[in-house]
Structure formats: structure tokens, C-alpha cells
Amino acid sequence: MPRLPSRIMCALSCSLLALSACGQRDESLAEVHGDVTFCGQPAVAEVMFEPLNSSGQSTGRASTATSDESGRFRLRLDDDRTGAKIGRHRITIRIQRIIAAADVNDGLSGAIKSTHLAREVQSGGNEFHFRLTF
């Protein structure tokens, strides 16, 4: 059997190693989705989950999403990973626009409304419904 040059063997080994890492799931993350309403109407909003330690200090990169026209969102940690770190989070929601509610949008006076909450992300799937008002 012919022997392959060491450079080719090295390249093949690196390729196989890279491929074996594809599809591995980060066990410190959990899926997070839900919806946002403002005064009973679906809201387009920026949603940010910032992981916290036991003393309430930030412990890393936040997961973010922008809700769609129906108010639904799905968090992403980065371009490659969906979800949020398992544990306690500070949640910031910035309402950008209310869908099908001109009178409520007029009440926003062009300003983005922001709120801060706290929630616990559990392993597995998490669904959060944020019902916000003035």
C-alpha cells in the first residue's frame, strides 16, 4: 500500500477533527423563545438575556433577538449558537414598534421604551411571554 506524504496526512487529520466538532451541542446553553406584547398588542422589540452570577453581576456574553411582527423571538448567543446560558438572567426589552395599534404607538412619542426583568433559564426548552404596559 502506498504511503501518503505527511503533509497530506496532517491535512486529512485536521479536516476529520474539524468535521467531528460540527454538530456538537454546547451543553451550557438552552433554547429560549417566546413573545412580547405591549398594551395587549404584538411588539417589535430587542430582547437581551444577560447571564448573572449569584450576586447579580454579569458573567458573560448576552443572548439577543429581535421579535418579529407577531412579537415572537428566538434567542441567539452568536451567529453559530442559538439559546442562552443556563441560569439566572437580567432581561432587557426595548420596544421599537407596536403592531396594529396606532394609538399606543402615538403614546410612545417616538421614544424606545425599555424595561428590565429577571428570569431563570432551565436546561431544555424555555418559553417566555413578556406582557408589557406603560
Kindly summarize this structure in a few lines.
Helix content is 17%, strand content 44%.
Model description:
By secondary structure, the chain is an alpha+beta fold. It has a single domain, classed as Immunoglobulin-like, CATH 2.60.40.10. It contains two helices and eight strands; from the N terminus they run αββββββαββ. The longest helix has 16 residues, at 6-21. The model has no long low-confidence stretch (mean pLDDT 83).
From the N-terminal CA to the C-terminal CA, the straight-line distance is: 76 Å
Radius of gyration: 21 Å
CATH superfamily: Immunoglobulins
Q: What sort of overall outline do the alpha carbons produce when their principal axes are compared?
A: elongated
Whole-number total of structural domains: 1
Number of strands: 8
- Overall mean pLDDT: 83
Q: What's the CATH topology name?
A: Immunoglobulin-like
Helix content: 10-25%
Question: What characterizes the major β-sheet?
Answer: 8 strands, mixed
CATH class reads Mainly Beta
